[in-house]
Amino acid sequence: MRKSYDSAFKVKVAVEALKEEKTVAAIAALFDVHPHMVARWKKQLVERMPGIFTKEFDSEWKKKLELKKEAILLRKIGELNIENDFLKKSTNSYTERDRQNFHRTVQ
Q1: Where are the domains of the chain?
Q2: N or C terminus of the chain: which is more exposed, having fewer CB within 10 Å?
Q3: Based on the number of CB atoms within 10 Å of its own CB, is 38 exposed (0-12), middle (13-18) or buried (19 or more)?
Q4: Is the pTM of this model over 0.85?
């Protein structure tokens, strides 16, 4: 099975490689990845760095951030709908007699 690495981890490894304080093999051993991955991530970082300061990058970043926020909100709405449906069903299962008995015991 292939390992999957998140972007923050890749950046961390690539930045370490950019420092050139250690060999690629040493960095690979340190982060428990194949040396080829270290070299690839470093190359990708170097190629993409100039684009970081462009307006296109800023707008792309903002779009991705908005999509992420939207996904979080939609997930929360879904959770709340499920909770709401559950509560509706559980309260509807009580009969009027059950409600009256409950109120008598509480008073």
Answers
A1: 1-51, 54-107
A2: N
A3: buried
A4: no
At which residue do the structure tokens 């170097």 appear? 46
Predicted confidence pLDDT, tens digits, the chain (107 residues)? 778 899 999 999 999 999 999 999 999 999 999 999 999 999 999 998 888 778 787 788 889 999 999 999 999 999 999 999 888 887 776 666 666 776 666 66
Give the whole-angstrom CA distance, residue 15 versus residue 20.
Answer: 9
DSSP string across 25-69: HHHHHHHTS-HHHHHHHHHHHHHHGGGGGSHHHHHHHHHHHHHHH
Rounded to whole angstroms, what are the CA distances from 6 to 13, 88, 94? Answer: 11, 40, 49
Residue at 78: amino acid letter: G
Question: Helix, strand, or coil here: 11?
Answer: helix
